[in-house]
User: What shape does this take?
Amino acid sequence: MNLNKNTKTMTHNFADTYDVDKRKMLLETENIRVDTLHLKEGQIIPWHKHTEMDDTFVCLTGETIFFSDRKQKNIKLSPREQ
Assistant: This one.
């Protein structure tokens, strides 16, 4: 994530290139960005690491598995878990 000093909005270099079924930005300010991503079975977000921000995941339907670099393990989320 980079903070664009001219417009004071966050930019994500590769986020828009992820192969996801649906994407919607719900909120963007100088300090926060909230996106929803809908993935079909088999779609993935490539492994990446943030140095200047944190991600928070909430599973609304289905099941989501992601790798936590901090915990060094896969974490499985069911609906409404975070």
Q: What stands out?
A: Residues 2-77 form one domain. The mean pLDDT is 76.
